[in-house]
Amino acid sequence: MFRYKFPFGDFQTITTMTETGITFDPPVYEQRYCAAIQILEDSRWANQIKKVVEFGCAEMRLFHLMRRIENIENILLVDIDEPLLRRHLCSINPLVSDYVRRRACPLNVQVLQGSVADSSEELRNTDVVIALELIEHVYDDVLSKIPSNIFGFMQPKLVVFSTPNSDFNVIFTRFNPLLPNGFRHDDHKFEWTRKEFKSWCLGIVEKYPNYMFSLMGVGKPPKDLESVGHVSQIAVFVRKDFLDMELENPLDSNPKPNEESTPYKLIHSVDYPFNVDTRTEKEKIWTEVQIELQRFKRLANSSENEMDSYQGNYKLPIALLLDRLEHVGATANILEEILKENKLNVQNECVIIEDSDEESEWSNPDDLAEYPFQEIVLADQEQAEECWDLTPK
Predict the structure, then answer these.
(1) In the chain, which end has fewer C-beta atoms inside a 10 angstrom radius, N or C?
(2) 9 lies in a domain?
(3) Rounded to whole angstroms, how far apart are CA atoms 368 and 189?
């Protein structure tokens, strides 16, 4: 085992218990999604994650968060329930805003009908496997095949499982009895205690020693009842070479699928639009310089405060400009070269911006049209298009 902490810190959540029930803010299913995204975006490995497989994707809600991660280039959404997948296919198609503000990298999304126990060819070369609230829905014969498919055949760098923590059920039963099957959901085949879940994880790393795991959870217990643990328990498996450790065994370069496996059925595939930026580093920085000069001039003209001026023109401090260009990797030397090459007036560590109604050579609107500003209106529109009513899984 190893100790893993969320890269952006613990969640700020509130668990409230009253005489009539218990509530979680935000809801536990949202906390699970946020946990998965934080793990994917961990700076220790984010740049090495290109292909993600989500087993038990159901209504594909987690996908809407994963698609925002620029470095991911392939997402496979897998579920055994084909009618459920078909009902939600339209939700994975690009929005109009995806064509306006294109990704920096390609993204192919495939929706596949199949079982988590089957080692289908599409699963090769997977970097990350995510299975949230899945394993408790499968029978023993499928459960027994999951480790061999994921850790033996797929050999991903990272695996995330979540499953209900039955230790927490003593709190739920204070308000409502469990279902007739003795669990929280009518399709659950089991619900493990923290000890049972840990035992399952230990069995995996014993058989597949190239992996280590860490346990955590989401859905904090009420105050003074911490002994029951979280509502949902999470296991994060990491391949040792991903932690700069030596592998116990060489990776199988050509793992054989389980002979009993059923091939997956492709339901839908879509490619997201992306922008191929062929500009040089200097050209990228020069575009951003033009944008910042125009922005500074507009602010100067609209501000009621007196702006620092030079003979009726405006002075933009180079230090401020460098700070604004940090995101594109501009340095003082590169910026100096760019300003000289484009014959901008620099005096006393400031760029002099002419106060003229005429468009100057460096502010040609055609040059900037290919790299538009990200308007607030567009962001609001996109957010409205993607609002959906989520219910706990």
Answers:
(1) N
(2) no
(3) 58
How many folded domains does the chain comprise? 2
| Whether residue 156 is found in the same domain as residue 209 | yes
First CA to last CA distance, the chain? 28
Q: What is the pLDDT of residues 212-258, one digit of tens each?
A: 999 999 999 999 999 999 999 999 999 999 999 999 999 999 998 88
| Residue 388: inside a domain | no
Shared domain for 257 and 175, answered yes or no, is yes
In Å, how far from its chain's centre is CA 291? 29
SS3 143: helix
Of 228, 249, 276, the position where a domain reaches its end is 276
Rounded mean pLDDT, 261-288? 92
Last residue of a domain, one of 229, 250, 276: 276
Residues 261, 131, single domain; the answer is: yes
For residue 51, which amino acid is it?
K
Same domain (yes/no): 120, 206: yes
Position 309, amino acid: S
Buried b (16+ CB within 10 A) or exposed e, 80-108: beeeebeebeeebebeeebeeeebeeebe
**What's the domain range around 260?**
14-276
Model confidence, pTM: 0.74
Q: What is the DSSP string of 150-205?
A: IIIII--SEEEEEEEBGGGHHHHTTTSPPPTTSSSSTT-S--B-HHHHHHHHHHHH
Contact 161, 211 (CB under 8 A): no
